[in-house]
Amino acid sequence: DMRDIARGAPDRRPGSIGNQRTAARVAEDLAALGFRTEIDRFRAESTSLVNVVARRGGGSGSQVLVIAARDADSIPDASTSAADTAALLEIARVFEGKVAQKTLVLASVDGSTLGDAGVRRLAERLESGSRTDAALVLSNMAAGREGPLLLAWSNDDKRGGIGLQRTALAS
Question: pTM of the full predicted structure?
Answer without folding.
Answer: 0.81
